[in-house]
Amino acid sequence: MNIALHDRLATAKKLARDAGALALSYQERLRRNDLVIIEKGVQDFVSEADQTTERLIRDELARQHPEDGFLGEETGSCLHGQGVWVVDPIDGTNNYLRQHRHWCVSIAYVVDGEPLLGVIYDPSNDELFSALIGQGAYLNDCRLHADHGNADRVRIVNLGYSAKTELQHYLRTIERLFEQGIDHRRHGSAALGLAHVAAGRFDGYMEAFINAWDIMAGVIIVREAGLWVELQTRPGGYAIRAGVPALAPILV
């Protein structure tokens, strides 16, 4: 494996932890109602913590890997480079702002549209999920080994919903899951949802529209855990289905 990818993975792991610690420090200001929050759209917020955390990641990546491009949720993009870092500094901002635990830092390195490495850090639980193409997926230092199971053992799926898609499509998916005896959750962080699929905490994940920065790290982590991932391009983003193979005919 190219030593440069190993170096980038090490960089991403450290940056994810540093960014997570910074985001946690901002929650003290959140508790004092002293954090700047901007509403970008319906149920779409950005805070000073998101912006500062992304700048930390972007500046350090530019210093260590100036040959690479960058795509971030909050600070825009510079897509010219050997590869592109795709970053969500706080995935699950709504959860973060309400002090729920389901949020994370997501960092991926993408070449020609394919993620080659991914890191997702959950600061609330000090869990770092990571993967490098061809090298497996890990939770902290433990390798993840997916249990494909069978249709009778599929019991819980994580779903995402975007206002950019039809509500009826989302509701029909829930109906199909219930018809098969499968429960669901909606935790509001695609990156963390995918990480939990790789760790076997969910059997699958689906969202009909999602941005690249929300999923690229999760895509390679799920793949390297040995599970199924399907991406379809959409104007401005993607649709994603992932999980155990038995879910393929259900998550449509």
Provide a descriptive summary of the structure in words.
The protein is α+β, with helices and mostly antiparallel strands and about 250 residues long. It folds into two domains: about 5-145, Fructose-1,6-Bisphosphatase, Chain A, domain 1; about 150-245, D-Maltodextrin-Binding Protein, domain 2. It contains six helices and 15 strands. It has an eight-stranded mixed beta sheet, sandwiched between helices. Strands 12-11-13-15-14 form a five-stranded mixed beta sheet, sandwiched between helices. Strand 8 and strand 9 (about 135-140) form a beta hairpin. Helix 1 packs antiparallel against helix 2. The longest helix is centred in the first third of the chain and has 29 residues, at about 5-30. It is globular. The chain starts with a helix and ends in a 9-residue tail after the last strand.
Shape descriptor reads: globular
Count of structural domains: 2
Which regions contain 5 or more consecutive residues with pLDDT less than 50? 39-45
The helix-and-strand class reads alpha+beta
Task: Characterize the largest beta sheet: strand count, sense, and whether it forms a barrel.
Answer: 8 strands, mixed
- The Rg value, from CA coordinates, equals 17 Å
CATH architecture of the largest domain: 2-Layer Sandwich
Order of helices and strands: HEEHEEEHEEEEEEHEHEHEE
The CATH class designation of the largest domain is Alpha Beta
What fraction, in percent, of the residue positions are helical?
Answer: 25-40%
Let me know the average pLDDT: 89
Alpha-carbon distance between the two ends = 35 Å
The count of strands amounts to 15
Strand % is 25-35%
CATH superfamily of the largest domain: Fructose-1,6-Bisphosphatase, subunit A, domain 1
Q: Within the largest sheet, what's the order of strands? A: 4-3-5-6-7-8-9-10
Count of separate DSSP helical elements: 6
CATH topology of the largest domain: Fructose-1,6-Bisphosphatase, Chain A, domain 1
EC number: 3.1.3.25
Keywords: Hydrolase, Magnesium, Metal-binding
Protein name: Inositol-1-monophosphatase
Organism: Polaromonas jejuensis
